[in-house]
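This part of the workshop introduces the protein records we will be handling. A record pairs a protein's sequence with a compact description of its fold. Comparing a sequence with its tokens is the quickest way to learn the format. To make this concrete, we reproduce a full record directly below:
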Amino acid sequence: MLFLFFLVWIIFNGAITAEIVVFGVAIALLVFAFVCRFMDYSLKKELIFWKRSGYFLYYVATLVAEIVKANMAVIRLILSQREEVEPAIVTFRTSLRSQTARVLLANSITLTPGTITVSLNNDRLVVHCLDKSLAEGMEDSVFVKMLEKLERIGE
């Protein structure tokens, strides 16, 4: 957040000079001290944020890769000689502890072609799959494993 305060200062000034940088660092430090004092924030939370944000970018890259793979699977399903697809509703429980991680999982499933999260209730997800082949291994998917690791960062 300290870097973000400094970055906002630089953007609002529209130029970079030695004077603007020095004042920017000072003002960013003062605002960060205020946030730490009055908004229950700390340097430890800042470090955890930066550790998680790096891994979160990796999660987003993996999500994009999984979306591409699922697109290919749906295209194969559409173009195959099978006359009927076999839709499936899958219900499973997740071991994710935080509500944020559960919502990320539900949204990741929905963003992946061929699947949509119908319901998220505490740790129970109900997912509709275009074909039962897309439902295999959903409770142990790469999304679940990565979100579990993301939750463990900073414990």
Summary: The chain has a mean pLDDT of 88. Helices lie at 2-13, 18-38, 43-79, 99-111, 142-152. The radius of gyration is 22 Å. The chain has two domains: 2-38, 48-152.
